[in-house]
Amino acid sequence: MATLEIRDLHVTVEADNATKEILKGVDLTVKQGETHAIMGPNGSGKSTLAYSLAGHPKYTITSGTVLLDGEDVLEMSVDERARAGLFLAMQYPVEVPGVSVSNFLRTSATAIRGEAPKLRTWVKEVKEAMERLNMDPAFAERNVNEGFSGGEKKRHEILQLELLKPKMAILDETDSGLDVDALRIVSEGVNRVRETGEVGTLLITHYTRILRYIKPDHVHVFAGGRIVESGGPELADKLENEGYEAYVKGGASA
Amino acid sequence: MAEAQNYPVGSTTAGQIAVAAESTVATRMSAPPSFDVADFPVPHGREEEWRFTPLERLRGLHDGTAVATGDGVKVDVRAPEGVTVETVGRDDARIGRAGTPVDRVAAQAYSAFEKAGVVTVPKETVLSEPIRIAVHGEGGVAYGHQVIELGAFAEAVVVIDHTGDAVLAANVDYVLGDGAKLTVVSVQDWDDKAVHVGQHNALIGRDATFKSFVVTFGGDLVRLHPRVAYAGTGGEAELFGLYFTDSGQHQEHRLLVDHNTPHCKSNVMYKGALQGESAHAVWIGDVLIEAKAEGTDTYEMNRNLVLTDGARVDSVPNLEIETGEIVGAGHASATGRFDDEQLFYLMARGIPEHEARRLVVRGFFAELVQQIGVADIEERLLAKIEEELEASVA
C-alpha cells in the first residue's frame, strides 16, 4: 500500500533578496485510499507544501524528509516524482503554447505508464473521461490551458488526474474560482478516482465548501507553516463556524 | 499564444494599422526602388529599413567593398523533363520583371551579377516532381540572380536549398502566368559564418496561386525581402516562414504584400524559435492595400517562441489600407517564451525536460511544416529542429 510520509519538512523561498522560511516543520502521513484535507488561511504555506512536494525549483528544502513508499522524493527531479506516482493539480495551471491537449495527454500518459498507450483504446479512454467531466471534444485540439476559463483549467487538471492514476494526488485549491456547477463536476471527478481506493488524496483548500462534495477522512489546520491541529471531518465544521482567527493568532505566537 | 502575450526581456513587438492617403510603406524607405546601386546611398544604420541590421556583419555587401571572388557559390539545378533551364547574360529581357530592388544590397546584387539563371515551366505543364536548385557556398563572395517563370496554368514545386559558407547577395524573380500554381521552398541551411541577403519578388498572374515557404536555420546573418505583387485579379499568395535563430545569429525577414490589384488574397504566417545569447530575429510584415484594390482579403501573423534568456525579437506588422471596400484585413504578432513554469508544468506530468522542450517546439512549428507537402523537405526540417534542440541541451 502506497504511503506518503512527510517528516519535519522545512522550506525556504528567496524573496526581495532575503531568505524566508515558509514551511516550519510539517509532519504528515497519507496512506493510499485516505483523503486528508489541509485547510488554512491565506499565506499559511499550504500551496508551498504542494509545490515543494512536486519539486518546484522556487522552493528550497532546508531540512526534513519526504518518502513515497520508502523512496526519497526529495532526491527526485520533477518528472521522476510524477513517474513515481505523485500528482499535483495546480491552482494556476500554466499555458503551454503550441502543444495541443491531446498531444500533451498522450505524451504524459506515455511517460507515466512507461509505454505509449495503444491508440485505439487511448482515444476511447480520453473521450469517455472528457464526457464524464462535461468537456467538449473540441477541447482536445486546443493548446494546453491557452485561453481556458478558470473552470476549464480545473477540469483539465482533473482529467489528467483520472487518466494518469497517481498513487498520491495533491489538489491545490482546486475549488478556487469555481461556480457551484463546476465545483460539483470537478468534485465528482475527484471522487471517481478516490473510489478506486488506489489513491491517497491531499486536498488543500481555503474553504469548507468543497468538503460537502469530497468527504475527507482527516482534516488538518495549517497555520504559520505547519499543521497546528488535526482531527476528523468535524474539525471542518468547526472551521466553517469559527473561521481561522484562533489559529492565525496562535500561529503567530507559536 | 493567443492574446496572452508574454514579452521576454529585450523583445519588442509593435504594429499599426494605418489608413493613409499616401503610402508610408513606400515612403519610409530611404530611397525609391532602383536597379542601379548608385541610386542608394551607403546605409549608416539609422534608416528605417536598416535599423535592425548589424551592418558590420554584412561583410561589405552594403558599401561596395565586397568584391565577387569567383568561388562564391556553386549552383546546381535539377529539373524534371519539360522544364527549360538556362544561364543567361545580364541583357536578357526576362530578368527583373517581377520587382525592382528596394534597398542598397538588392541593387548591389542586381548591378553586380554576371550571369543569371532562368528556369521556365511552359504553359499548361504540370510537374509531378519538384525542381531542385542547390546553391552551395564555397567560401567566397558572390552576386546572383535567379528567374523562375511559370507559363499560364503551369504547376510546379521549386526547392531552393542554400548550404555551405558564402557571402551572397542574390535576388529571385518568380513570374506566374495566369492560373499558374507555384510552390517555392527556400531553405537557408547555411554554415555558421555565411551571410545571405536577397530580395524575392513574386508577380502573380490573374487567378494564379503562389505559395512560399522561407525556412531559415543557418548563417551568421540572413536578411531576406520576400515581396509579392499581383498582375491580375483573383491572385492568391500564401507566404509561410519558419526560422530557428541560435546564439549569435541575426535572421531578418522583411515582407511586403502589395495589393495593387482588385480581388486578390494574401495570407502570411511566419513563426520563429530563438535560443541562446544574442540570437536576434527581425520580422517586418508590410501589407499595403492600394486604393484600387477593392475586394482584397488579407491576413498576416508572426509568432515567436523564445526558448532561453538573451534572445531578442523585433516583430513589426504593418497594415496599410487605402480603400474600405475590402473583404478582410488583419494582422497579429505575439512573442511568447518557453519559461520555467511551462517546463515545471510538463515535467510535473512525468515528461522529461528534453522531451518537454521538443514537445513545445515541434508543436509550435507543426502546422507550418505540415503544409509544405514535400515529404523529404518536411522530414529534413523536423530533423533539423531536433538537431537545433539537441544543440541547446548540450
Concise account of the structure shown:
The complex is a heterodimer of chains A (254) and B (394). Chain A is α/β, with parallel strands linked by helices and 254 residues long. Chain A contains eight helices and ten strands.
Descriptive labels:
heterodimer; A: 254 residues; Rossmann fold; six-stranded mixed beta sheet; four-stranded antiparallel beta sheet; 10 strands; B: 394 residues; mainly beta; 18-stranded mixed beta sheet; 18 strands
Helix content of chain B: 10-25%
Radius of gyration of chain B, rounded?
A: 20 Å
* Beta content of chain A: 25-35%
Oligomer: heterodimer
Low-confidence stretches of chain A: none
User: Care to count the β-strands of chain B?
Assistant: 18
Order of helices and strands of chain B: EEHEEHEEEEEEEEEEEEEEHHH
Instruction: Quote the distance from N terminus to C terminus of chain B.
Output: 27 Å
Low-confidence segments of chain B, given as residue ranges, are 1-11, 18-22
Order of helices and strands of chain A: EEEHEEHEHHHEHEEEHH
Mean pLDDT of chain B: 91
- Overall, the morphology of chain A is globular
Number of domains of chain B: 2
Total of DSSP H or I helical runs spanning 4+ residues of chain A: 8
CATH topology of chain A: Rossmann fold
Kindly name the structural category of chain A: alpha/beta
CATH class of chain A: Alpha Beta
Radius of gyration of chain A: 18 Å
> Which range best describes the helical content of chain A: under 10%, 10-25%, 25-40%, 40-55%, 55-70% or over 70%?
25-40%
Strand order of the largest sheet of chain A: 6-7-8-3-9-10
In words, what does this structure look like?
- The complex is a heterodimer of chains A (254) and B (394).
- Chain A has 254 residues and is an alpha/beta fold.
- Chain A has one domain: P-loop containing nucleotide triphosphate hydrolases (Rossmann fold, 3-Layer(aba) Sandwich).
- Chain A contains eight helices and ten strands.
- Chain A has a six-stranded mixed beta sheet, sandwiched between helices. A four-stranded antiparallel beta sheet of chain A has the order 2-1-4-5.
- In chain A, a hairpin with a 2-residue loop joins strand 9 and strand 10.
- In chain A, helix 5 runs parallel beside helix 6.
- Chain A starts with a strand and ends with a helix.
- Chain B is mainly beta.
- Chain B folds into two domains: 327 residues, no CATH class; 56 residues, no CATH class.
- Helix content of chain B is 14%, strand content 43%.
- Chain B has an 18-stranded mixed beta sheet that branches.
- The N terminus of chain B is likely disordered.
- At the A-B interface, helix 2 and helix 3 of A face helix 3 and helix 4 of B.
